[in-house]
Amino acid sequence: MKTGLHELLQRYPQLSSIGAELSEAADLLQQSVSDKGKILVCGNGGSASDADHIVGELMKRFVKERPITKELQESLKKIDPEKGAMLASSLEGSIPAICLSAHTALSTAFGNDVDSSISYAQQVSGYGVSGDVFWGLSTSGNAKNVLNAALVAKAKGLKVLGMTGESGGLLKDLCDVCIRVPERETFKVQELHLPIYHWLCIYLESFYW
Predict the structure, then answer these.
(1) Widest CA span of the chain, in angstroms?
(2) Residue 39 in 3-state DSSP?
(3) pTM summary value
(4) What is the pLDDT of residues 44-90, one digit of tens each?
(5) How many Cβ atoms from other residues are within 10 Å of residue 89's Cβ?
(6) 3-state secondary structure (DSSP) of residue 163
(7) pLDDT tens, position by position, 63-75
């Protein structure tokens, strides 16, 4: 069993029914990062906040120290011994991730000029390359902007990871892995999404540091 997954399922026994999907999601994310891919995350409302939260945990240390590579440390010191030494000791290792929900100017401009339902799709089109992961959060699984982005992701060769409520909605059919938590009410779905993405972030961190 994946590192930490047993503990997660002990703490949240209602997730035991989706243990296989959780393990598959961890593998999907880990393979992408190992292949130098990045993770594009988005959602709406509370799920937009969750997307931002995920990126925050991936781009800096979460539960472990993450020193940058020795090569980067030495390169920084060579360019500027004083500032380079400070940066070498302060910078932290990152798992490349972008929160598509956080780009207010781009999203509102595109929504005003074109169509708000494809603002995430536009970003996936611009950022995404084969080997990346699109991670869409939608409690219903039917958020139009998330669905459009997932469709573009598949067309560009990205892997698609979904996090939804029990039904999975339309999003499940576009996913390589869809984590469907066993709840239907929005706030209850979101309450289970948080410990899952925390575990996924911890798993990735433990894999590389």
Answers:
(1) 56
(2) strand
(3) 0.96
(4) 999 999 999 999 999 999 999 999 999 999 999 999 999 999 999 99
(5) 12
(6) strand
(7) 999 999 999 999 9
Q: Are 180 and 138 in contact (CB under 8 A)?
A: no
Q: Which run of H or E residues covers position 190?
A: helix 186-208
CB distance 172 to 139 below 8 Å: no
Q: Is the pLDDT of residue 144 over 90?
A: yes
Strands 133-137 and 159-164: parallel
**Domain 5-65+93-208, what architecture?**
3-Layer(aba) Sandwich (3.40)
> Tokens 């490349």 identify what position?
96
The length of the chain is 209
Q: Which two tokens stand for residue 90?
A: 């302060």
Distance CA 82, CA 177 (A): 47
Residue 30: the pLDDT is: 98
* 7, two tokens: 């503990």
Contacts (Cβ under 8 Å, ≥6 apart) of 95: 33, 39, 58, 59, 204, 205, 208
Domains of the chain, residue spans? 5-65+93-208
Per-residue pLDDT tens over the stretch 156-180? 999 999 999 999 999 999 999 999 9
